[in-house]
Amino acid sequence: MASHGFWFMGAENPAGDGSQSPNTPRAWCQAAAQKFSGGIGSKLCALLNVGEAEKAAQASVKAEDESTAESCACNKPCNCSKATVGFSDLYSTDLLPALDGDAKTLNFLQEVVDILLAYIVESFDRSTKVIDFHYPNELLQRNNWELSDEPETLDDILISCRATLKYAIKTAHPRYFNQLSTGLDMVGLAADWLTSTANTNMFTYEVAPVFVLLEYVTLKKMREIIGWQDGRGDGIFSPGGAISNMYAMLLARYKMFPEVKEKGMSSVPRLVAFTSEHSHFSIKKGAAALGIGTESVICIKADERGKMIPSDLERRIIEAKQKGYVPFFVSATAGTTVYGAFDPLIAIADICKKHEIWMHVDGAWGGSLLMSRKHRWKLNGVERANSMTWNPHKMMAVPLQCSALLVREEGLMQSCNQMQACYLFQQDKHYDLSYDTGDKALQCGRHVDIFKLWLMWRAKGTIGFESQIDKCLELSEYLYNKIKDREGYEMVFDGKPQHTNVCFWYLPPGVRNLEDKVEKTKRLHKVAPVIKARMMEYGTTMVGYQPQGDKVNFFRMVISNPAATFEDIDFLIEEIERLGQDL
Fold it and tell me: What are 476-509's pLDDT values in tens digits?
């Protein structure tokens, strides 16, 4: 049975078909008014605009509340009744740290929280749109987004908050499948709010003691899961998988030629890196940023399922050596972006060991399968890697951003990146300086990304993440089985997907029976973009598409949203057919 989210809180007879009945919002609001304190339930109903009858009822409740409320003049956060606060004549300068700004701050932030709670509830409601799409010029004209010299009132600020969320993509929506990062975890969200409230930097223990310790504990746990003995090694949280991959390339170069740190690329021979032709573009971006050059990244052939072919890797390594180049880095992929393929890590590890090359595993998308006893075999051999990228903000549904680089050799990051700035990393501090982790990062200022992962891990346990991941893979297999023999569908490659990526073409009736193969391919190339555009205009769902090599545009369905159900997969299939039937 599908879970229908917050709308069914208190509803006696929720529909079992995934649709929302007209009475559902009313039932929800009645329950919310009773369950939430401080009038939040009534405010949620008003913000959600659930119908004129409901609005009238809310107005009555509000009038009753206001008639019994007493003004509060304590000017401090409290639980006493307060008269309705207007924000039309208040400005940010009236909030803390302004004198007597406590109550105004509390009321303003409560209004913001009400807006956020309404958006959260709406995001899980299948009867709402995933997206309220407008073209860029139109959206620019619908609201005043310009910055001015004079301050806006807090009322204007609240209007801007509502407008921003009105046109935002509901990435928590159960029918949002567009990216690898989807969903919204409530504990993770709470952790993000706490992180922003703490508003500190990760570079030293003295300004982020708890967060630094949590990063230490969590990275050690992740290294244990990889299979490195006793969780030894190093690591850091970085601003996304692309930066984590670049860190790995940086470390590999430094490990082989430490003099490059001071003398630059002119001091080393021509370096070459190797990665699959299906790998993420960040490998080439990293090479460009580090001065190695994109031409020094050699793309290795992949098989029909998108896996790197080890024999081609070794052949290209030998060729590079014969040309006088120095192979220094191999990036294997655990979960490619499009096909969801897992490179054969054991065979690649054997080659890297033989030729003494740094082995990196880009597990940004597929690394989280290590949390599943059922699926972790797909990463067999990862324990032999020198480094690994792992993005919990993807399959583990940790709020963006949360990406980790794990390194097997302890101390290498520090020696590679440290600059020993004396105003931050004084050597005569009164605590263990190994907890001043900032000098091993390329950044100075570093956002606290650890707390949401740590708090979610505490809330779910490893088995909770495992269950969540297994469910997503079960849904992808369900989709594959539904469409592999269904009329009008054609799989991009044969066989059950290894990850949640399901790649397929939808052939509308007007394309299905065309005998001219050239014309058929030409028209098929246009199908996915048109259906995707219609999805966005109707706002019903979102799923990605792209070409790959010589293959024309196809849909790439990925499932990482914990809110998705079998009914949502059924809806997606029916919606694709509805939107594409006239093509």
Answer: 999 999 999 999 999 999 999 999 999 999 999 9
Give the Cα separation of 84 and 182 in Å (integer): 37
Do 557 and 502 form a contact (C-beta atoms < 8 A)? yes
List, in order, residues 6 or more apart from 299 with CB less than 8 Å away: 275, 276, 277, 279
∠ CA 54-59-62 to the nearest 5 degrees? 125
Mean pLDDT for the stretch of residues 520-542 = 98
Q: How far apart are CA 187 and CA 452, in angstroms?
A: 7
Q: Specify the pTM.
A: 0.87
Structural element, H or E, at residue 139:
helix 136-142
The residue with tokens 């779910």 is 460
Token pair belonging to 510: 């007007």
Q: Give the number of other Cβ atoms within 10 Å of residue 199's Cβ.
A: 7
Distances (CA, A) of 435 to 211, 214, 422, 450, 455: 11, 11, 16, 15, 20
Tell me the torsion sign for CA atoms 537, 542, 547, 552.
negative
If you average pLDDT over residues 173-185, what whole number do you get? 98
Query: Can you read off the two tokens belonging to residue 540?
Result: 């019903």
Burial of 477 (0-12, 13-18, 19+ CB in 10 A): middle
Q: How confident is the model at residue 57, as a pLDDT?
A: 41
With a pLDDT cut of 70, the percent of the chain lying above it is 85
Angle subtended at Cα 326 by Cα 323 and Cα 332, rounded to the nearest 5 degrees? 110
Q: What's at 569, amino acid-wise?
A: I
Token pair listed for 428:
């005569």
**Residue 372: C-alpha distances to residues 35, 39, 131, 466, 478 (Å):** 36, 42, 32, 5, 18
Token pair of 327 as six digits = 């192979």
The residue type of 437 is: T
**Residues 181-199 pLDDT 10s:** 999 999 999 999 999 999 9
Strand 489-491's sheet: what is its strand order?
Answer: 176-177, 542-548, 551-557, 502-506, 489-491
Average pLDDT for 103-130: 98
Q: Model confidence over 212-231: pLDDT tens digits?
A: 999 999 999 999 999 999 99
Provide φ and ψ at 533, rounded to 5°: -60, -40
Calpha distance 561→174 (Å, rounded): 7
Torsion of the alpha carbons at 10, 16, 20 and 26, rounded to the nearest 10: -20
- Give the confidence band of 60 by pLDDT, cuts at 50, 70, 90: very low
pLDDT of residue 46: 54
Q: Specify the 3-state DSSP secondary structure of 191.
A: helix
CATH code 3.40.640.10 region(s) in the chain: 234-432
The structure tokens 């940004």 sit at 364
Residue 401 backbone class (left: φ over 0; alpha: ψ -120 to 50; beta: rest): beta
| CATH number, span 234-432 | 3.40.640.10
- In this structure, what token pair is assigned to residue 369? 């399968």
Answer yes or no: are the C-beta atoms of 336 and 276 closer than 8 Å: yes
